[in-house]
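Run log, item B.
One chain of 489 residues. Sequence copied directly from the ordering sheet:
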Amino acid sequence: MENVITEVSKYLIILLMMIYTFSCFTVFRKRDIEDQRNVLRRQIVLMLFMNLVAYTVLFLQNNDMKILMMYGAVFLFIVVVQILYRVIYRKGNLLIVNNMCMLLSIGFLILSRLSFDKAVKQFEIVVIGMVLSFIVPVIVRKVKILKDLTWLYGIVGLALLMVVLAMAAISGGAKLSIEIGGVTFQFSELVKITFVFFVAGMLREDTSFKRVVVTTIVAAAHVLILVVSKDLGSAVVFFVAYIVMLYVATKKARYALAGLAGGAVAAVAAYFLFNHVRQRVIVWQDPIAVYDKVGGGYQVAQGLFGISAGGWFGMGLGKGMPNIIPVVDKDFIFAAICEELGAIFAICMLLVCMSCYLMIVNVSMRMSKPFYKLIAMGLGAEYAFQVFLTVGGTSKFIPMTGITLPLVSYGGSSVICTILMFAIIQGLYILREDEGEELERKRKEKRKKSKKPPKQNPPGGNGVSGGSGYREKTLEEKIQEQTEKSLNW
């Protein structure tokens, strides 16, 4: 009976996910605002029902009340977040809120399947991040000094990266994080935000060659420290974000092409300078050939086996063997999702990520001030490229980089900073709505002022009567007089 329920549930979960994903791209085709809100409310119902089905299957397999308690916590989390956003930020983008909750709930679900203790820890960290996220939009809207702290962002970012370089322990061949009071911090995740603010501040008004050179030097310093720390995945994310922001700010393709050429040269240099980079390229070329070697292709090969075993519809929750993939809860969580929930579900999840990115780009294009426009574009580029690196590395489309899947993978620093990035986007969206309302108010005032009473010649003035007190009748008065004559007749 349990096998039947698991088999039926996987098709139901896929169907619910497909409907949710389809609504992400059709909600704004609705002309009426109330119709849009109804679609967004249905998304919440789909999300909660999908989690109910999934956690019920896990409960039947494990017969552990903790699973149901986890569902209750996720249910309460989604409902509270949705209510608070509607109460506190009435102008907020609810589609971004829904997508964030959906991706977080997928992460909670797959982590509950892989390691329940890690799922609980991730949930606690997400709650803390979400509390902080309700403060960020207010800061973005009200604190106007943000655009004037350009060099502070750059100095803080470089300082944090230098701390990691000097104090971090080597993990997986790279210096990624430091431990303070038993809590691990990966500062490169926070620096992703300060880096974008620095570049936006530098290029918001002045895009002269001198300013571009100075900005490029500081951006290159960020990337160089990450390269020396052997955190090449984050280095690539920083590099791509800078190229995108530089092109958006200057509108000069030659800068972007020069940056890409420099990046290609740096990639070749990294191949010859760093042994672990060469090893990852060898694994990417043929993971089976180095399957049994230390640091070889075992992880990538097992990830590919899991993806192929899942097929289009997956093996069902609890029916696969994703735990045999090393670091599956971080770097290779996409393989676990494909194995148990299927490629169709995984593709829908990626489309939800794409929907988030498109909304971020939409916010950027509608911002009137260059500083905010560049911030949205930079954060969007970081988010989208991080998704690409994770999925590409797992599926062997590109060499593995060790990047986590935003909002889904296990990792406190990553999930908190991604939530804060989404909160910044919400603040920009609300700021754009405020600007729209202010512009509409000014237009209405202008229209009122333009409706002046007809100009009249004062008695004794320089009218056609020569100061006799007579004035020429207006067109409206002539029409009214003719109408009255016709009615009397």
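Observations after the first pass:
- The CA atoms of residues 201 and 246 lie 12 Å apart.
- Strands lie at 170-171, 174-175, 178-180, 183-185.
Flagged for discussion on Thursday.
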